[in-house]
Design a protein that fits this description.
Length: 271
């Protein structure tokens, strides 16, 4: 039961990563130790099918919980307490970062891997910063654009560190998407999930092959992207009053403790 609850909670946080701008569901899956297993399961869906289904049931239910039920309170908190909430997410990712770093070096690391990490972090930050600053073309809302939005969200799973919500904000689709989760609008959610499934099942085999052939290089690439995307969600330009600073510090420490605790549980329950 403890294992089930831990995976459900991880799934809920990963689900919020799909709808929280600046956060990557794939990055959260990576820092929680689930990314590689998710990709391996989808890429080889008939291999140990029942065992994988039982393993991912709480993760999937948690992700749905995070997307559907957390969207309303999350929207409220981001509207009125955005800065502390973002610091809480930064702390949570930071708390899990030591485990991610250890996982990246599980098969050894060399100077080449450090260079991959550094270059990825710098280029990833420049790309995300440029995208945030210069992208902003709104798209019409119809089944085809929602299908496209599903593909973008799926890329946030397959490419850890990519925040699909950021791009949806730029395209004018983020707020309608959150409202669709709140009201369960089928005309939005059906093509959204269809695009998500289409992209994930099409590209997961490629990602699985890359991990098998270049584990250390690809995982250090992931670490670099996680670092870049985490820097992007730090609210540097927020208005910091004394109360906001205290609330942000508490949220950061609590998030860090939560992330570190979950990393410890991952070692205990990982199979």
């Amino acid at each position: 039961m403890g294992d089930w609850i831990v995976r459900f909670f991880k799934g809920a946080l990963i689900g919020t990563g799909f709808i929280l701008p600046g956060v990557s569901g794939g990055a959260l899956a990576a820092v929680f130790g689930l990314y590689e297993r998710i990709i391996g399961f989808i890429a080889h869906i008939t291999k140990n099918f029942l065992g994988n289904v039982l393993f991912f049931i709480p993760v999937g239910l948690g992700a749905l919980f995070g997307m559907f039920l957390v969207s309303r309170p999350l929207g409220f908190l981001l509207e009125y307490y955005e800065t502390p909430v973002l610091w809480g997410f930064v702390g949570c990712i930071g708390g899990t970062f030591p485990a991610l770093w250890k996982e990246a070096g599980a098969q050894g690391r060399s100077l080449r891997h450090y260079l991959i990490l550094a270059v990825t972090a710098v280029l990833g930050f420049c790309f995300l910063y440029g995208a945030e600053k210069y992208l902003g073309a709104a798209l019409p809302l119809n089944p085809f654009t929602w299908l496209f939005a599903g593909v973008i969200i799926a890329l946030g799973v397959l490419v850890p560190g990519m925040s699909p919500s950021n791009f949806l904000v730029y395209l004018g689709m983020y707020t309608p998407m959150v409202n669709a989760f709140k009201t369960l609008e089928p005309q939005t959610l059906i093509p959204l999930f269809a695009g998500f499934a289409l992209c994930v099942f099409s590209l997961s085999s490629l990602m699985d092959a890359l991990f098998r052939r270049a584990y250390a290089a690809l995982f250090h690439f992931v670490v670099g992207i996680v670092a870049a995307s985490t820097l992007m969600i730090i609210p540097f330009g927020a208005a910091y009053t004394g109360r906001v600073i205290i609330a942000s510090a508490i949220a950061f420490i609590a998030g860090g403790a939560l992330g570190f605790w979950m990393s410890g549980l991952e070692k205990k329950y990982k199979t």
